[in-house]
Specification:
Strand order of the largest sheet of chain A: 1-2-7-6-3-8
Radius of gyration of chain A: 18 Å
Distance between the termini of chain A: 42 Å
CATH superfamily of the largest domain in chain A: YaeB-like
Number of helices of chain A: 2
CATH architecture of the largest domain in chain A: Beta Barrel
CATH topology of the largest domain in chain A: Elongation Factor Tu (Ef-tu), domain 3
Oligomer: homodimer
Helix content of chain A: under 10%
Largest sheet of chain A: 6 strands, antiparallel, barrel
Number of domains of chain A: 2
Strand content of chain A: 25-35%
CATH class of the largest domain in chain A: Mainly Beta
Structural class of chain A: mainly beta
Chain lengths: ~220, ~220
């Protein structure tokens, strides 16, 4: 399996990363092809598609330590489900599948949004999204159905002036997914989510997210 | 990349195979896990999902002879598109992606329909279809849009009594996709499609498909 490209994203740490693609539309990425696969001919016609599939490698998982069951965070982290009934990274082959919005193609690079991948993630394949085969509004989502649309209310208790409007939107959308480990319930506990050069410090109370501080780590 | 399972289907040859999953709902398959990955715990909760993603290996392609452009059969076979704008098997990593209907799980095996894979195809991963991230009715399909719903009229000029109702439906649905190479236009030319033990002989005239003969190859 060859690495054909890598994606640049604003997430250098796993904490806060959306659990699925598309959940945080404002999280952007840029797919940069490896020299051997950089050929604009290979992208001919792709600009007519609004969405693409990206098949990629879960970093830090080699598939050798997979377990038949996993605890999906969406179920509170205390219920075990079969690994093939989840999108967990800890699976026999650490392959991720993401549906991304294709914003534009420029200089042979793909600008995408709705990412759920860490900065530098290796990519194996890119395919167009085909509505006729890939879009199934009649599908039944199993145990994921009830939790799919859950989002948390987010309140900023601090100054957000150092963020652009787009950055603020991305931070808000990520926190609406409430990334804190759901088995941890200590109130007042502060979590830190890294986004770009920012450290976003927040706590969770009564299923709401409160941002206490946003620090720009690049400013000394 | 480990082979976790193989799929049994009724198609032993490539000719006639649907170009995408879901196009021939009546084409069935059974996913049988390799001994090392056969564990019913790994499927816990999957039965609640109506559809699954299957990530698999394109047989006969190793990715070393990929070309940046390919000729999608849907465009008449004479127009070149970038390989990443198509689902062509001849790509840097010969990975296929299919969305299959999960009919039932029995004895740790997955019964699926809408397959587009040859009998014995090796499978790398199985994931649940999640409507919230995977279903995009607003997506724009690019050059595939116009051709997506094209189907051909199919007329049986021969006896079909040896087929069950389900088999007849499968044959009809496959031929509605008109599997004959679109750059070949000789009328009266007979094509043979293998399905189960049947050899379905047909010709194409004015974009309609006529079945001339169905032979059961297992009957001597």
């Amino acid at each position: 399996m060859k690495i054909i490209a890598k994606i640049k994203t604003d997430m250098k740490e796993k904490f806060g990363l959306p659990r699925q693609s598309g959940l945080v539309p404002e999280l952007k990425g840029k797919i940069v092809f490896e020299p051997e696969y950089k050929d604009e001919n290979a992208l001919r016609g792709l600009d007519g598609f609004s969405h693409i599939w990206v098949i990629w490698r879960f970093d830090g998982f080699d598939g050798n330590k997979w377990s038949p069951t996993v605890r999906p965070p969406r179920l509170g982290g205390n219920k075990r489900m079969g690994v093939f009934a989840t999108r967990s990274p800890n699976r026999p082959n650490p392959i991720g599948l993401s549906l991304l919005k294709l914003d534009k193609i420029e200089d042979g690079e793909l600008y995408v949004s709705g990412v759920d991948m860490m900065d530098g993630t290796a990519i194996y394949d890119i395919k167009p999204y085909l509505k006729i085969s890939d879009c199934r509004p009649d599908a039944i989502d199993g145990f994921a159905e009830d939790t799919a649309e859950q989002t948390s209310n987010v309140t900023f208790e601090c100054d957000t002036d150092m963020l652009t409007k787009a950055e603020l939107k991305a931070v808000k959308q990520m926190l609406e997914q409430d990334p804190h480990p759901s088995y941890k319930t200590e109130p007042d506990r502060l979590y830190g989510m890294k986004y770009k050069d920012f450290n976003v410090r927040f706590y969770v109370k009564d299923a709401c997210v409160y941002v206490k501080e946003i620090k720009n780590d690049s400013v000394k």
